[in-house]
Amino acid sequence: MVLLTNIMLSVIVTSTPLLLAATGELVVEKAGVLNLGVEGMMLVGAICGFAVALKTGSPTIGVLGGMIGGALFSLLFSVLALSFLAAQVPAGLVLTIFGSGLSALIGAAYVGISIERLPHLAIPGLSDIPIIGPILFGEDILVYISFVAVVGVSLVLRYTHVGLVLRAVGDSADAGHALGYDVIGIRYLATLFGGAMAGLAGAYMSLAYNTSWSENMTAGRGWIALALVVFSTWRPFWLIAGAYLFGSIMYMSFFLQGFGIAIPSQFVSALPYIATVVVLVIISSNKARIRMSAPACLGKPFHATS
Question: How far is 17 from 285, CA to CA, in rounded Å?
Fold first, then answer.
């Protein structure tokens, strides 16, 4: 029972940053913007969150610092892709490369320093229930926020005027503009939200997954988050299944190494990314489903003529 509980807790910790980052990116793509800079925003959020937590002595304030850092960094992409109409794919790649270098530069002064871990909840009586207690009632607040974010995004997109406008802009920017909506402004706000969620995911990496900073600590999780949006076919609740599927695969790669199974370490480390490629190939084979699910204006620049 103890082993089972530890495995499930480890899967939750591994899956949470994927779910947070993918939720933000789904909103960005629903608005018709393809931001491939999730990895860079996560890294900036991780170092900002760690630095703020270290300076203030509060991991909670560090979480806010990570969100703000990720959101502000996403503005670089917005200016390039939305204001200057740069191609969105290379603009996102620039964001990732720049975020990797910037976070390494800032984080050089913080290598080898440990801080207090983001506190876990402890509900008397409920947290002590075997297996279920630690999993449902003993996690840190960001685990619960990841589920609340998915539910909130789903409800907003499906049942609110804000969600209707966001989806309309993603499916037909020209029609949205003709109806009087500020397409660029809406896409700026969606990108800011995606940056804040990626920064939150990065802060989770440095404040809950680890309690220290290390260069490139996200280790490609931003790319997996991007793949999760396609895996979910742009449906919020499917992000949960995808995040925990890939989180389980990532944890199992470490689990196999811990048991001394004779598998090359390079293959074990690459296993989550191999699984990501395989899943994407399978999903992409159904082109009709992708066309029906993806926002029609995804990745297409928009320029208001009047």
Answer: 28
pTM, entire model: 0.93
Contact 224, 253 (CB under 8 A): no
Q: What is the pLDDT along the chain (306 residues), one digit of tens a residue?
A: 676 777 888 889 999 999 999 999 999 999 999 999 999 999 999 999 999 999 999 999 999 999 999 999 999 999 999 999 999 999 999 999 999 999 999 999 999 899 988 988 877 776 777 777 777 878 899 999 999 999 999 999 999 999 999 999 999 999 999 989 999 999 999 999 999 999 999 999 999 999 899 999 998 999 999 999 999 999 999 999 999 998 888 877 666 666 666 667 677 677 778 888 888 788 777 777 777 788 999 999 998 765
Q: Determine the length of the chain.
A: 306
CA 22, CA 15: separation in Å to the nearest integer? 11
Convert the chain into a string of H (helix), E (strand) and C (coil): CHHHHHHHHHHHHHHHHHHHHHHHHHHHHHCCCCCCCHHHHHHHHHHHHHHHHHHHCCHHHHHHHHHHHHHHHHHHHHHHHHHCCCCHHHHHHHHHHHHHHHHHHHHHHHECCECCCCCECCCCCCCCCCCHHHHHHCCEHHHHHHHHHHHHHHHHHHHCHHHHHHHHHHHCHHHHHHCCCCHHHHHHHHHHHHHHHHHHHHHHHHHHHCCEECCCCCCCHHHHHHHHHHHCCCCHHHHHHHHHHHHHHHHHHHHHHHCCCCCCHHHHHHHHHHHHHHHHHHHHCCHHHHHHHCCCCCCCCCCCCC
